[in-house]
Amino acid sequence: MPVLSARLSGTPIEKEYLRLEASLGRVEASGHPFDASLYPADVVSKVAREWQLRMVFEHRSSMVFAQLAQQLYEANAPLDMKIVMLRMAQDELRHAGTCADVIRALGGSPEPEAALEVVPLARHGERTAEERALRNVLYTTCLSEMVACARFVATIDVTRDPYLRDVQRALLADEVLHGQFGFHYLAWMQPWLDAHPGERASVERYLVHAFAILESELAPVGPFVSLTGAERALGANDPAAAREIFYATMEGAVVPGLERLGLAADASWRQRRRLA
């Protein structure tokens, strides 16, 4: 497999990137160095590997947002929606670079092997451009990114290492926007949905499928092993907590939020199953 790299080019483009990075950051860079001597070496290595996986995931997410921006073009979305979606694609690439910095700090390799091909975003058959974009915005932001936000919050609550806590706060600052985007887009789409009741019903049927797919991806199934104190202090992945967070986020935030914006999300959640 190819190697995913966060290296910069060394050309004048690098200066433009650094200006962009400085302008978009919502949280100041951590002033705390990472001190590996405070933790067992095997735990530090485990957490470094988890950040390698996160680096790959962030890079893939940038591809998703970039393609979703194209679908917003096709759906004739407002200018600000298209621009912010492109910014969100940039965020995910910037996050991949942040992950590489963390991996270096933890003594790991910041160049993991990864599949780098672009996986095409769903086109949803013969749906209109408006419905296609709405479906993918809902899945990517209202559903997936909202769970990511909740996981970051829960992890920050237990992370005690100051360097890693600061980095997680910086990533969360961007993820909040990513999770909110879809609800704002859905609010803007209300007149279109009111004029197209068939498409509204189609989106609600899609949610039956979307909820089931997301559950299979983001709600790990046990048995689970309890984390050690050192693992918690470093913000290690906690599958048991991830499962609880998924259901709490869906039932406490996502479904009620979609309901308030006119979608029968509660019924879709209760009926969730793969439709294809």
Give short descriptive properties of this protein.
single chain, 276 residues, mainly alpha, Ferritin, 10 helices, 70% helix, 0% strand
Describe the protein in words.
This protein has helices spanning 12-24, 41-74, 79-105, 129-158, 162-188, 190-195, 197-218, 229-233, 239-260, 265-270. With 276 residues, it is mostly helical. The chain has one domain (37-270): Ferritin (Up-down Bundle), CATH 1.20.1260.10.
Compute the separation of the termini in Å. 30 Å
What share of the residues lie within helices? 55-70%
Question: Looking at CATH, which topology would you report?
Answer: Ferritin
Average pLDDT metric: 97
Uncertain runs = none
- What's the total number of strands? 0
CATH hierarchy: architecture: Up-down Bundle
CATH class, please?
Mainly Alpha
The helix count comes to 10
Rg, Å, rounded: 20 Å
Which of globular, elongated, flat, extended, rod-shaped describes the shape? globular
**Beta-strand residue fraction:** under 5%
